[in-house]
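Troubleshooting: if your tokenizer reports a length mismatch, compare your output against this known-good record of 549 residues.
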Amino acid sequence: MRIKRLYTIARTFLHYGLDNVIPARWLPWSVRLARYTLFWMPNRHKDKDSGVRLRLALESLGPVWVKFGQMLSTRRDLLPPDIANELALLQDKVKPFPGPQAQQLIEDALGITDIHDEFDNFEVQPLASASIAQVHTATLKHGDDAGEDVIIKVIRPDIFKVISADLRLMETLAAVLAKHLPDGRRLKPREVVREYRKTLLNELDLAREAANAMQLRRNFEDSELLYIPKVYGDYTRVSVLVMERIDAIPVNDVETLNIMGVNMKMLAERGVEVFFTQVFRDSFFHADMHPGNIFVSRQHPESPQYIGIDFGIVGTLNREDKRYLAENFLAFFNRDYRKVAELHVDSGWVPAHINVEEFESAIRTVCEPIFNKPLADISFGHVLVNLFNTARQFEMEVQPQLVLLQKTLLYVEGLGRTLYPQLDLWQTAKPYLERWMKEQLGWRAVVRAMKENAPYWAEKLPEMPILLHDYLSSQKQQQDFQRQAFVQFEADQQRLQRGIWWGFISGALLISTTLLWIDEQPWWLVAGSGGATLISGAVSWYRSRRKTV
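Known-good structure output:
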């Protein structure tokens, strides 16, 4: 089975001429020779660009490879722009599997004999179908939420087996590329596939997706910016997710949004605010914000609200990453490239041995031509991509959370410019970042830290007298121990000095005895000197032995 699939992949790659995408000088002679022997697999798409051929090949190989291409489209630090742009066009459209089979999978996962025991109006015909799962509609039958319209998302049957098989093949191909491509170390194919494996397996766990949705919903509760549908945890399992059904407009349906009179400028700016709020306020962001997962509420078009779905991929940032990222963004706004270089070193993103002046110069070389354009015409996302590309030359290892952040920023910026072409993302983001930095570094940060730590100190304050007494007692014991150790050290030093002195005398007497014997002096003089040598040597040995014992 694996050999057959590997043959299918190789044939597809050759039929679409993907061997031509890799420069011939990178391929060893054995690979070039093997290509000539496979004459019955010619390139059938010579009239198409390399990016188009790669996209078509991935679409023909199936959903696992489509999603891999979608992920690669976000790695603009690894791919040429034309190929990355083409991969971004990949569509995750898959033929649905039979509705009765989906119904049986739902019943098995929920442990019920008939789906109508828990749901009314279950629609056997799926509402939507994708590579990992498909969605059906129904109505809740019991409890406080009875009568609520819901969607039931169910994982495709045997998808884990298919994904595991293709992932193993991807890992094999990645190992070959890493070994034989001259640029394999920089491209890191094995690390890319490993990252993809983790992302894909996370998407197979709908219980994890449900938890992500609940967290985002809690973060944006009562918010005018973003609405997250309710998840019904009692009906959610690893392979089944039940969520509130929404009636909204796809965000890329610009024509309908204009007809409804949606304030497009506010909608675009709120998209930017949603992104920065998730990243810097919550440290938890929806990392798959492509147009298929974002909708706009039909209510209040003058004050539009986003609705998000599909929470299989989320990103997190720690406090240090957030602060350095915010400072980096502000330094870019102010074109302070020295600050950008220093922040990369301080944060540990770039090794400490890197020459800051050279790094600063490289950043200026890349970014200064960009800033010659009007700010409204500059792509914030692409500046970040160029920064990461430059930093890679200085041994920067781009972390997974930063890759997710870069991908999400590109989505948000592209979406905002589609809705409102005049969107100035820099002008929209800068006040938010400046306000956030003031909150983190000003007196508000001190007050907030005191509030956050108040329960801890309230718990510890009653214990303070005992802790103080224990500390002072331990300090006294430590001082006594140190005093005794110092006295012992002085005594040892004195014994050592005396031992060295007696050793010196013994050596001198030994030399004198030898010289007297050589000069044939009287026997009694030689014997006396030798006796003195023996005595001093015995004393020296005894003292050293006492010290050792």
